[in-house]
């Protein structure tokens, strides 16, 4: 229902004109959501912006920020014939230190792709003699669906099901980004569907502590252009001495308090922990482990697979891209040695990675 | 990864609903939206409805954009 209404051309033109009016000096906005990364690239929004306005892609792709070591762990699990690894498709081609899940599957490992974590539970109930390990990847949009699945496993008495918890939380990453020295960012395009769960009020501390404008934004062309207008208007106020705040462009899907039921499930099943982000490093309280009540579903505890530390870097500058200091085109490997078919770094692997989106939609632009 | 698709609930049975995505119908868990009812538009992610969409709010946002377009249209 949304697509057409939120793609109307006269409004889009008006919003672009307003953006041009509002930009009167260099400004940088960052989105932290792979769906925004792709939408901005696909709709060609960057090319409509005045030169002074930079649209940056932060660490918004959960696949891209999963440490290599965890990919290695998933691969080690997949090599055990007693296990079935079940995952969202995005994880299949992410390079570990020596292999990928896709390659393991080709050489006989039982790796299955599902659309919903509930499908993984079905796999477990049909294969009671195998341990079914679901790769628990995702931001706050996805983690409640996995929490609900774990609760369903308990209710149905399915004991051969576990989850490798690789979840990431968005607000702690925003705090880290906003506090980077040099203040390279002027505002956050906050992720619409993460916000559906956590609510727009979850960004209040980011806005107030760092005086950083935050606008929750949807994913259609008018949403993104409208969100940028709201941010630019706020940036004007902040530069004039005003206080930053949280605004919500995506009111049709996001309330200030978010999805309370989903939050309850998250609180029950998981516990906030420090978490390591690939190419960025550890961010305090930015991930989930299992709560003591559900520790039986923690694949890390249940299987105790040990893997070596991350291998050395490869010249990839994903880290700098995700921190907003570089664009994919600044990487010497971009579109030369690093291409989607044969990716060097994580931002080229996932279709939602900044480099992959640039490669697909924006490569030939000046 | 956080892609969520809007669809319309056509049937509810317990914590499961049938959701129509413009002609394609899919079974969807309503565990995260216990108040959802047939006729509601919901956002669906990974087999779960994650929120009920508000038509009122959608119109409100659009009318802001339309006002802006109108204001610009009035200029010479
Ligand atoms: S182009 Fe490839 S190597 Fe360069 S930053 Fe992107 S993912 Fe890393």
Question: Care to describe what's here?
Answer:
The complex is a heterodimer of chains A (366) and B (76). In chain A, 40% of the residues lie in helices and 16% in strands. Chain A is of the alpha/beta class. Chain A has a domain at 68-169 and 258-302: HypD, alpha/beta domain 2 (Rossmann fold, 3-Layer(aba) Sandwich), CATH 3.40.50. In chain A, the strands form 3 sheets. Chain A has a 5-stranded parallel sheet with strand order 2-1-7-8-9. In chain A, strands 4-3-5-6 form a 4-stranded parallel sheet, with helices on both faces. In chain A, strand 10 (270-277) and strand 11 (281-290) form a beta hairpin. With 76 residues, chain B is an alpha+beta fold. In chain B, strands 3-2-1-4-5 form a 5-stranded antiparallel sheet, with no helix packed on it. Chain B starts with a strand and ends with a helix. The relative contact order of chain B is 0.19. The structure holds iron/sulfur cluster. Iron/sulfur cluster is lined by residues 316-318, 321, 328, 331, 333-334, 338, 344-345, 347-348, 355 of chain A.
Mean pLDDT of chain A: 93
CATH class of chain B: Mainly Beta
How can the largest sheet of chain B be summarized? 5 strands, antiparallel
Spans where pLDDT lies below 50 across 5 or more residues of chain A: none
CATH superfamily of the domain at 68-169 and 258-302 in chain A: HypD, alpha/beta domain 2
Task: List each distinct ligand once.
Answer: iron/sulfur cluster
Estimated share of beta-strand residues of chain B: 35-45%
Reported for the largest beta sheet of chain A, the result is: 5 strands, parallel
Radius of gyration of chain A: 21 Å
Give Rg of chain B in angstroms. Answer: 16 Å
Give a short synopsis of this structure.
Chain A has 366 residues and is α/β, with parallel strands linked by helices. Chain A has 17 helices and eleven strands. Helix content of chain A is 40%, strand content 16%.
């Amino acid at each position: 229902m949304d697509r057409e209404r939120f793609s109307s051309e006269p409004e889009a033109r008006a919003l672009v004109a307003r953006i041009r009016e509002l930009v009167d000096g260099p400004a940088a906005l960052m989105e932290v959501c792979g769906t925004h990364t792709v939408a901005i690239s696909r709709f060609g929004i960057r090319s409509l912006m005045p030169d002074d306005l930079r649209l940056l892609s932060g660490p918004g792709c959960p696949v891209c920020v999963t440490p290599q070591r965890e990919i290695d762990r998933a691969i080690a699990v997949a090599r055990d014939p007693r296990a079935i690894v079940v995952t969202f498709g995005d994880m299949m081609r992410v390079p570990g230190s020596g292999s990928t899940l896709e390659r393991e599957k080709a050489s006989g490992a039982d790796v299955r792709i599902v659309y919903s974590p509930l499908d993984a539970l079905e796999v477990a109930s049909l294969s009671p003699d195998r341990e079914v390990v679901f790769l628990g990847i995702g931001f706050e949009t996805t983690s409640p669906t996995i929490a609900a699945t774990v609760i369903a496993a308990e209710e149905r008495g399915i004991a051969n099901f576990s989850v490798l918890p690789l979840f990431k939380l968005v607000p702690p990453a925003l705090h880290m980004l906003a506090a980077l020295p040099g203040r390279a960012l002027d505002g956050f395009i906050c992720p619409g569907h993460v916000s559906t769960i956590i609510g727009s009020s979850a960004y209040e501390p980011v806005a107030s502590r760092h005086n950083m404008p935050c606008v929750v934004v949807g994913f259609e062309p008018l949403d993104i252009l409208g969100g940028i207008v709201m941010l630019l208007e706020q940036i004007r106020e902040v530069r004039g001495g005003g206080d930053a705040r949280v605004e919500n462009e995506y009111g049709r899907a996001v309330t200030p308090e978010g999805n309370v039921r989903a939050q309850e499930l998250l609180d029950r099943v998981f516990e906030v922990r420090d978490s390591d982000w690939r190419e960025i490093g550890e961010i305090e309280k930015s991930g989930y482990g299992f709560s003591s009540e559900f520790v039986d579903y923690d694949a890390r505890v249940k299987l105790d697979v040990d893997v070596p530390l991350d291998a050395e870097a490869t010249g990839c500058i994903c880290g700098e891209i995700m921190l907003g200091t570089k664009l994919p085109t600044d990487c010497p490997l971009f579109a030369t040695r690093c291409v989607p078919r044969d990716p060097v770094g994580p931002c080229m692997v996932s279709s939602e990675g900044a480099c992959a989106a640039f490669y697909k939609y924006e490569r030939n632009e000046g | 990864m956080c892609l969520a698709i809007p669809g319309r609930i056509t049937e509810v049975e317990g914590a499961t609903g049938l959701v129509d995505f413009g002609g394609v119908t899919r079974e969807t868990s309503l565990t995260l939206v216990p108040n959802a009812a047939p006729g509601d538009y919901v956002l669906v992610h990974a087999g779960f409805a994650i929120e009920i969409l508000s038509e009122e709010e959608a119109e409100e946002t659009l009318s802001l954009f339309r006002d802006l377009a109108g204001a610009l249209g009035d200029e010479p």
